[in-house]
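User: Sequence recovery, please. Input:
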């Protein structure tokens, strides 16, 4: 079981993993890969939740709502890993890691950590909710929350709500695709619509930035 879980992560290929996941989908794998997706290891939730939801509709081996709940539970656990590491290790070590070769190998650098930290400082606790919907911020928003020693129950609540909304959107995509595309067309369809979700996420980020600048301008006046 452990070997099966780790095998697709050795050299990540989205298309190959997608095919593997379709043939091995289960609640355990949905949970495990969503833990990974929400921790410091870069991994796209888009290759987990939509195919799981698709299979839930097409085959009935899993329940659509349970897919969302299990994926959300995994996202919370992964986010708590980042939170606890940031809380225990502290800001200087987090930045040292971000600037190290290992940090870069995990696709983390100082600019990304600083971006997430600035976002958290500007928005407070609600950032853990909105941050779950924004590309490049989603996996990292837990770090400034841990550094800032945000109340863990509030952190878990906001993270869970944001993750559930995001997973619900992805599951809705899987449900919709189950009505319109065949299994052989699924990967290309998910990839296509994921680009739309990414653009929507960046649009949300843009709106958040406009909101920040608007409030800053009002305070100066």
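Assistant: Recovered sequence (221 residues):
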């Amino acid at each position: 079981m452990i070997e099966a879980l780790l095998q697709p992560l050795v050299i990540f290929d989205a298309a190959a993993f997608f095919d593997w996941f379709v043939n091995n989908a289960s609640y355990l794998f949905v949970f495990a890969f969503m833990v990974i997706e929400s921790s410091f290891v870069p991994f796209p939730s888009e290759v987990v939740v939509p195919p799981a939801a698709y299979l839930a509709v097409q085959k009935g081996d899993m329940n659509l709502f349970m897919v969302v709940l299990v994926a959300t539970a995994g996202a919370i656990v992964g986010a708590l890993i980042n939170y606890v590491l940031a809380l225990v290790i502290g800001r200087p070590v987090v930045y040292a890691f971000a600037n190290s070769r290992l940090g870069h190998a995990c696709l983390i650098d100082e600019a990304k950590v600083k971006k997430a930290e600035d976002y958290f400082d500007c928005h407070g606790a609600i950032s853990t909710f909105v941050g779950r919907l924004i590309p490049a911020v989603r996996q990292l928003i837990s770090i400034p929350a841990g550094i800032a020693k945000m109340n863990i129950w509030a952190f878990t609540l906001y993270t869970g709500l944001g993750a559930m909304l995001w997973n619900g959107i992805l599951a809705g995509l899987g449900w919709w695709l189950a009505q319109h595309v065949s299994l052989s067309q699924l990967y290309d369809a998910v990839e296509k619509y994921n680009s739309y979700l990414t653009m929507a996420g960046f649009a949300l980020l843009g709106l958040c930035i406009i909101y920040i600048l608007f409030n800053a301008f009002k305070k100066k006046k």
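Confidence is low (pLDDT under 50) at residues 1-11.
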